[in-house]
TrEMBL record:
Residues 76-210 form the Multidrug resistance protein MdtA-like barrel-sandwich hybrid domain. Residues 218-276 form the CusB-like beta-barrel domain. It comes from the Bacteria. It comes from Peteryoungia aggregata LMG 23059. Residues 111-180 form the Multidrug resistance protein MdtA-like alpha-helical hairpin domain. InterPro entries: Beta-barrel_RND_2 (IPR058792), MdtA-like_BSH (IPR058625), MdtA-like_HH (IPR058624), RND_pump_MFP (IPR006143). This is RND family efflux transporter MFP subunit. Belongs to the membrane fusion protein (MFP) (TC 8.A.1) family.
Length: 367
């Protein structure tokens, strides 16, 4: 009997304990539901800005390089075989410095022949002059006829003409000999070499290229699409790729009127300021400003998408909810993008918390 009473007493004690646990569980569930309801009714905090249409200039960063304002292609004026080369690419040269030489044996022979012809013509003129003077005296004494005197005078004139021709031939031979030596026409740096020792070149065939000392240009090859809305601003900010903190302002000097058929680009030459003595061939980057346009500038954090196309969340102040609005983006830039269509001026656009926004959800925004 004692054991049974003890068992009944134990069951009596267990029932109130189970009831307490059940009440606690119901209270906990009620609390969670209350928290969920409160969470659902609490507005989602976001940041928003009022869309404002303003003017901007699209920027295109394009790479180029520094070149000399004047570059000269040097060539021999006569054909022949290259026998000497005294410079290489990168060498600094002075005006009149010997750069290359052709085999001049043929020109030397022509010069000797011209010199001999000149000496013969000079001797003939001297002889014809003495004969003319003698015939002139005999004519005064009426020892010869006028016809004989006229023949002597004609012979002297012919001899003098031959002398002039021999002198011209000698100068031509000297010029031809000088043309076998290729000399620098200005101070500068050799930038290209097209022939080597032993090469047979023709007249006017480019042999060397020299970048003259003096003003420097920055050359860019820009794609045609950049010009569809007009020419860029005259002033361009440029800097070496290796040191982009070293900035300089260059002015557009020349825009090519034709498109390169191989690259589809248009060449633009900019003039560097005189105090920018950047080495030839320095790679640079230029920030080209396009014509002014209008649009709404928004930070990247405002970007969303709808059916794979750009969109932004626009807040309706009356309902305190946001809806996804598709937009047309004209320019993507580092840090922001520019909307050209799809937004009304003054529309509230969510810029922070975009991923937390849901349709018909209450929002609490700050500008």
């Amino acid at each position: 009997m004692k054991r049974r009473d003890h068992h009944l007493q134990h069951r009596a004690v267990s029932r109130p304990s189970s009831l307490i646990l059940l009440i606690a569980a119901l209270a906990s569930l009620t609390g969670c539901e209350r928290q969920a309801v409160e969470a659902e009714s609490k507005p989602q905090p976001v940041l928003a800005v009022a869309a404002s249409v303003s003017s901007y200039q699209p920027v295109a960063s394009i790479t180029g390089e520094v070149e000399a304002r004047i570059q000269t292609n040097l060539a021999f004026r006569v054909s022949g075989k290259v026998v000497e080369r005294h410079v290489d690419v990168g060498a600094r040269v002075k005006t009149g410095e010997l750069l290359m030489r052709l085999d001049d044996s043929e020109q030397q022979s022509d010069l000797k022949i011209a010199e001999a012809s000149l000496r013969a013509a000079q001797a003939d003129v001297k002889q014809k002059t003495l004969a003319y003077q003698r015939y002139e005296t005999l004519l005064e004494a009426r020892a010869i006829s006028q016809q004989v005197f006229d023949q002597a005078r004609e012979g002297l004139a012919t001899s003098q003409a031959s002398l002039e021709s021999a002198q011209a031939n000698l100068e031509t031979a000297k010029d031809a000999l000088s043309y076998t030596a290729l000399k620098a026409d200005a101070d500068g740096i050799v930038t290209a070499r097209n022939v080597e020792v032993g090469s047979v070149v023709s007249a006017a065939q480019p042999a060397l290229a020299i970048a003259r000392d003096g003003p420097r240009d920055v050359v860019f090859d820009v794609y045609e699409a950049f010009f569809l809305k007009g020419e860029p601003s005259q002033e361009v900010e440029v800097s070496p790729i290796s040191d982009q903190n070293r900035k300089a302002t260059a002015t557009i000097r020349e825009i090519s009127p034709v498109i390169d058929p191989q690259t589809g680009t248009i060449r633009i030459r900019l003039t560097l300021q005189d105090d920018q003595s950047w080495p030839l061939g320095t790679p640079v980057v230029g920030a080209f400003l396009g014509p002014a346009q209008k649009g709404t500038v928004l930070p990247w954090s405002a970007m969303s998408s709808q059916n794979g196309k750009p969109a932004v969340w626009v807040i309706d102040p009356a309902t305190r909810t946001a809806s996804l609005m598709p937009v047309d983006v004209s320019v993507y830039r580092s840090g922001d993008f520019i909307v050209s269509a799809g937004l009304n001026d003054g529309a509230l656009v969510v810029t922070e918390g975009v991923k937390l926004v849901r349709p018909n959800e209450l929002l609490d925004w700050e500008s």
